[in-house]
Amino acid sequence: MSPEELVLAHADLRDRLFAAKLLVPCGVDGLYGRSATFEKVLNGVDAAAYALGIVDDPITISFPPMIPRSTFEAVDYLRNFPQLCGPVFTFTGDNKDHSELVHRLDEHEDYSDCLSLSEVALTPACCYPLYPSLVGQLGDGDGWYSTMGYCFRHEPSVDPMRLQAFQQREHIRVGTPDDVLSWRETWVDRIPKLLESIGLEFRTEFANDPFFGRAGRLMSRSQIEQELKIEWLVPVFGEDHPTACVSANYHQNHFGELFGISTADGAEAHSGCVGFGLERCTVALFAAHGTDVSMWPDSVTSVLWP
Ligand code: AMP
Ligand code: ZN
């Protein structure tokens, strides 16, 4: 498929989801309203992804879709992925500054220099707020967590699987390198079973994050060489352009060192996370089984709504 044909395929699936009123346009690519049916499927995927981790008895915790700017800066998001980031700006000026702002609005002029950085940023990955909360030494038997929430990444696209605002279910393990890597293996077993049970084809690959620029290319290569990121890719737009619907990341001691987290026996903690892209799985289900949920195979709906 040529790049032009791929864009047409993206727009075609997006338009089918609009026509079926599953997604509702908001005027910006990658920002959509969702119907009750879309949400029902998404919640079914989330429940199934959550249930897969219950055997680990995780601490389940939710955070708002924003993180402190201090965390956002500490995790190097702005340095590594400036093209995706969403720091929040607000107005902190006086009456004179306000008049200037209103003037710019009236004239449809750029007003970005009338705003200033706030103390929060939109969450880029829903596991980030967890790590600073774990500062100190983990108790015996601690180190399993599960969270779900909205993320923001600035990647506007007509592809309905590439959103600016989307939800992840994440399972997180913090512990020794062996703890984290053996835990990741359990997910390497579990994820294919879930995807097969809901009738999604996939393949697995070592992958990299979209680190920015020339320095980023080196980081991407090293991430692949060290096998830090595994993706489960679903070929919604053909085998040549599959989309990552689930990822497993090994962060080594990155967060343990940054936030001063140690294991129960005092060593610097390592961590890993498994992230389910809930909208991506949901859109992949509509692409695979059609936009009319009443026609989906019982084998699939019985997994989503047991
Ligand atoms: P990551 O934190 O990059 O490993 O992402 C975890 C999962 O979130 C991926 O496997 C995707 O399923 C999903 N995801 C990442 N970016 C997007 C996006 N722009 N739109 C929708 N889902 C996404
Ligand atoms: Zn994560």
Instruction: Write down the Rg.
Output: 21 Å
Q: What is the level 1 CATH name of the largest domain?
A: Alpha Beta
Q: Quickly give the CATH architecture of the largest domain.
A: 2-Layer Sandwich
CATH superfamily of the largest domain, by name, is: Bira Bifunctional Protein, Domain 2
Overall 3D shape: globular
End-to-end span in angstroms? 38 Å
Strand content: 25-35%
Low-confidence stretches: none
Say which molecules are bound, naming each kind only once: adenosine monophosphate, zinc ion
Biggest β-sheet strands, sense, barrel: 7 strands, mixed
Number of domains: 2
Fraction of helical residues: 25-40%
Q: How would you summarize what this structure contains?
A:
With 306 residues, the chain is an alpha+beta fold. It is 39% helix and 25% strand.
